[in-house]
Amino acid sequence: MIVVKVGGSAGIDYDAVCADLARRWKAGEKLILVHGGSGETNRVAEALGHPPRFVTSPSGYTSRFTDRQTLEIFEMVYCGKMNKGIVERLQRLGVNAVGLSGLDGRIFEGRHKDSVRIVENGKTKVLRGDHTGTVEKVNTGLIDLLLGAGYLPVLTPPASSYEGVAINVDGDRAAAALAVALNADALLLLSNVPGLLRAYPDESSLIREIPATDVEAYLEFAQDRMKKKVLGAAEAVQGGVKRVIFGDARAGEPISAALAGAGTVVS
Ligand code: ADP
């Protein structure tokens, strides 16, 4: 089993990802796709007059502050436009894909964090009314049913809280939890960069290999949201996933290239 996560940043070629996925699926490989949608969510939120608000935690992690209205816009884009756009591409390529959020069948479950500590202008503050959380539990029942019946699952945040409230969760870490739950052979984290760069944005500074025992040491090279990918990779390999690869989804055959070792390989 291979879990492929494709991000939501500008420049990602979803046609290329879906074509590669379809070829491999038809050749008999078991795959699951998890996707993001942050870039499009920002655009739609601006257009709807509720611009995104990104906050930084005291430990330096950036996240989207998700009030109820933001959550609804997030769902429109992630579960609607992005998810159905990917499912449509795969259907056109002859793959019977089924698109679901983490709420459906409680595939992704975790604790709802209603308040978030942030640093703004050098001061620490607490913001309430946040609909975020982290995936702590993956319920694979529905996924097993789908795979067993020959459907390719296409999954996206949000997740469900233990109380059944929708929560915005990081897609990379959700994909990592899924890869652990399914005992996947590999987790691919595909985005609009060649991999983890030692000196971002210099693409010639690609880090080719990271030993599984030392992933956290590489957090120092990651800025902003790249930190979540490194964290997800650490969680996946610690949970028994053999290989995590940060790969490029901008062109070519992104899944095959990553599996062939292009990008940053954590093993
Ligand atoms: P996605 O939504 O595609 O999953 P993110 O925007 O969450 O991707 O994270 C990828 C982004 O992280 C890149 O587009 C890049 O701007 C940023 N980044 C920060 N530090 C690094 C780094 N050291 N190497 C590569 N990308 C980095």
UniProtKB/TrEMBL annotation:
It catalyses: [amino-group carrier protein]-C-terminal-N-(1,4-dicarboxybutan-1-yl)-L-glutamine + ATP = [amino-group carrier protein]-C-terminal-N-(1-carboxy-5-phosphooxy-5-oxopentan-1-yl)-L-glutamine + ADP. Residues 1-246 form the Aspartate/glutamate/uridylate kinase domain. Transmembrane segments: none annotated. Substrate binds at R64, N168. The record marks K5, K229 as: Transition state stabilizer. Pathway: Amino-acid biosynthesis; L-lysine biosynthesis via AAA pathway; L-lysine from L-alpha-aminoadipate (Thermus route): step 2/5. Belongs to the acetylglutamate kinase family. LysZ subfamily. This is [LysW]-aminoadipate kinase. The lineage of its organism: Bacteria, Thermotogati, Deinococcota, Deinococci, Deinococcales. The gene is lysZ.
